[in-house]
Design goal:
single chain; Ferric Hydroxamate Uptake Protein, Chain A, domain 1; 2 domains; three-stranded antiparallel β-sheet; 22% helix
C-alpha cells in the first residue's frame, strides 16, 4: 500500500511539473506584434491646425488633437527632405511613416533611424530586419522586397536616391 501511495504522489508531482513547464513554455513563446523603431529620437506627429469653426488653417501643429492627424502615421527624424515609408509584415499588417532626413539615399535615412538592418553583400545591403521584424530567406524562406511608388525597385535601398514625393515600401515576400 505504501508503494501505491508513493507512486500516486510521484505521479501527481510529475503532473504538476508538466503543467508548470507547459505554462512557462506558453508564456515564453508569446510574440510581440512589432518592435518600436530604434531611432533614439522622439516621435513627432503633426496635424493640420484648425480654426474655431474646424476649418484647416494651412499650418501644422505638433501633437494635434485626437483624430486630427492621419491615423497610424508616425513621423521620424529631422531634415529638409521627407518621404513616405511603409512596412508590410508577413501577415499583411502595414505600418506607415513619414521620414524627415538630410541623407542622400533611402537606405542611409532608414539606417540612421534604426528602421532597417542587414548585411553588406556583393550587391549592396541585404536587408534582414525592417522596423524590428525579421525576414531572412535562410531562416524562414521569406525576404524583404523593396518597392518605389508601388513598383518593385530596380535598385537596392542603399543605392536609391531620395526623391521628394515618392513613396517607398518594404514588404515581406516568399
Amino acid at each position: 500500500m505504501q508503494r501505491k501511495t508513493s507512486n500516486m504522489l510521484l505521479s501527481r508531482i510529475l503532473c504538476m511539473m508538466l503543467i508548470v513547464a507547459m505554462a512557462l513554455f506558453t508564456v515564453g513563446c508569446k510574440k510581440d506584434e512589432k518592435e518600436t523603431p530604434k531611432s533614439g529620437q522622439e516621435t513627432k506627429v503633426t496635424a493640420p491646425a484648425k480654426d474655431s469653426q474646424g476649418e484647416a488653417t494651412g499650418e501644422d501643429t505638433e501633437g494635434g488633437q485626437a483624430g486630427d492627424a492621419e491615423e497610424g502615421v508616425t513621423e521620424l527624424g529631422e531634415g529638409k527632405m521627407s518621404f513616405n515609408f511603409s512596412v508590410v509584415d508577413k501577415d499583411g499588417n502595414e505600418t506607415k511613416f513619414v521620414i524627415h532626413t538630410d541623407a542622400e539615399t533611402v537606405g542611409a535615412a532608414l539606417m540612421e533611424l534604426g528602421l532597417v538592418e542587414g548585411d553588406e553583400e556583393d550587391y549592396g545591403l541585404y536587408v534582414k530586419k525592417v522596423n524590428g521584424i525579421l525576414a531572412d530567406y535562410d531562416v524562414d524562406k521569406t525576404y524583404w522586397a523593396f518597392y518605389i511608388n508601388g513598383e518593385y525597385a530596380m535598385s537596392g535601398v542603399d543605392k536609391t536616391p531620395i526623391t521628394e514625393g515618392e513613396s517607398y515600401l518594404f514588404k515581406v515576400e516568399k
